[in-house]
Please model this.
Amino acid sequence: MDFALFSLNNAWLIPLLPFVAFVLIAFAFKNMEKTASTTAILFCGASFLLSLGVVAGILQHPELIEQPFIKEVRWFSMPGLSITMGQYIDPIAAMMLFVVTLVATMVMIYSTGYMQGDPGYTRFFAYLSLFACSMLGLVIATNLLQMFIFWELVGLCSYLLIGYYYFKDSAREAAKKAFMTTRIGDFGLLLGIMFLQINFGTLEFTELADKLPAFALAHPALITLIGILVFIGPIGKSGQFPLHVWLPDAMEGPSPVSALIHAATMVVAGVYLVARAFTLFHVAPEAQHFVAYIGGFTAFFAASIALTQREMKRILAYSTVSQLGYMMMALGVGSLTASMFHLMTHAFFKALMFLAAGSALHALHGTADIFEMGGLRKKMPWTAAFMVIGTLAIAGIPPFAGFWSKDEILLMTKLHGFTDLYILASLTAFMTAFYMSRMVFVAFFGKENPHNHPHESPWNMILPMGVLAALAVVGGLVGTPWTEHGFGYWVRYGEYHHPHADWSVMGGSVILAVAGIGLAWAIYGAKLIDNEKLASRAGILYTLSYRKFFIDEIYQAINKTLVAGTARFLYWIDIHIVDGFIDGLADGTGWAGRVLRRVQTGQLQHYAMIFFFTVVLVAVIMGLMGNNSAMALIGGGK
Amino acid sequence: MALVAPVGLTHFLLLGTALFCLGLYCVFIKRNAIALLMGIELMLNAVNINLIAFNKFIAPASYTGQVFSIFVIVVAAAEVAVGLALVISIYRDRATTSVDDLDWLKW
Model:
């Protein structure tokens, strides 16, 4: 049987294989490090091969662009609710499967070097496998419920991995922060899903797509509400403003985890969800504009924070937030293609940069501040080269991957008439080029720090970086404006328009990128401008940026006053009113028991007395009020 | 003119009431089970007086009240026989006839 066809038909194996690896490692290979890592890599590699087959299958069957290939089984059903599980394969899913399995496999190979000698080695590979499984399950979901299940699993895995060094306070805190922040978003998403189920009676993507347009015409306000509720999930998961705070802290996990979270799994899940629910946003223009402006603002906001950060992974983390903002903005302006394209190229170069950063940190035994690094280029030529490639890619220098995808976003933003967002995004591109090259110039060029004794990483860390670096260079070529049946032909929503090259957009972004790199070179490379003096000159702006606009502090303040205050109030209600009612009920019962036990003395004379006085009472009532009421009292008569 | 009014229904009823109250009082305050039974006898006799008085003054033509009182006497005799037997049996078992100690009913 044809392998491509086989893969298409059995795409459900792709998430299943890493899960099998997870079970094997967790229960059988707990104390066998070599076997555990080999198992993880082999199973994930097999998933990668199947994904390649799926991509090939998609390429052989262009009809799958419009008509997704669905296989599903009924999971359970009851009147009015039927839940299925299955696989939903279209070009977007195929692209995601490819990217996720590729990055996951590379990260696993890299981890065999990076995690060498770590006491939790097998645990780490078990988590990685589960992480890959959750993300892949999310990718092929046929309905929102299945997606939500894996969505939560992704959240769980990120929690486990961010808190991997559980003996460290900061790691525990970061894990909790990530879990709780994204949970706030998940709550909105869950509400949105419930709204959809109630109004449409289904959560299947295909059925929703059929029913949505008519419904949107009838209830425009409701559909906007649903769209925004659904989008709150991605705001949390994909680190959009204002729920971005967990993402920079997520670097507390080991570097390979950061690579996986930031490039291919957790944060991409949010973008992917919006892409999957694109029909919903398409019929709800207000919600879509909301997505666009949140995304655009996030891109700019995070970039402005990244300008002044000093820790290498923190800079990269804010750049991820910023790039995710780009992707959301692209979805918001209505271009599925541009968003997915940037998602793909970003996965390549961001994973590459996190792995390179990990390599540098590994060599320096955890020195995180880039100003304490300096001159790594000489001792770590490969890592430095990879980091430069990644930087050029994210900065948007042609012909690196990031240039093409970012350009497509800029172009689409402009074409759809969002001039304000276009300007914001261009400024962001300039800042991106600046802060990324700042990091490279400071950490990898310049004077060597005599306290550091770095050494180049072993081959099993170099190799995966090499693969990703190659893709960061050429990965964007599938989507150039001159590619006739390129990325946009496959991954799209609605009619296909072959994009033309807009020289003003292209030229503008290149000029901004070069200017950004040049400025960084002038300050940090050639030291034409003193950076300390610049910082003090910028004053309040510098402080705002360096302290991340005090968002964390604001949250803390809100936490202390509003949340804690409400909690205290609710606690009082709980103790005094809820518990008070229950306790009162119990006390009342006890009191009634104490009183009533006096009638059960066992003393004959007491019984006789009660009997007698009851007779007297009945007689008195009979005498005063007549027969009927006495009969009613003792329960007889009519 | 008689110095005293002829004995009427009211006198009988007052007598019955007094007798009944004495019996009731006896039942309420006596500690001895046999005295209790005696109190009950008083109350039954109070009822008998009422029955016969009503028979005589309200429905002289019938014997209902008299027959009824004979029934009461028979039943009372049987009851005392059983009651005494019980009391004796309890006494053998517990060496007491004080009703304060006879509170097993609540267990």
User: Anything to note?
Assistant: Residues 544-600 of chain A form one domain. The interface with chain B takes residues 600-605, 607-609, 612 of chain A (CB under 8 Å). Chain A is about 75% helix and 5% strand.
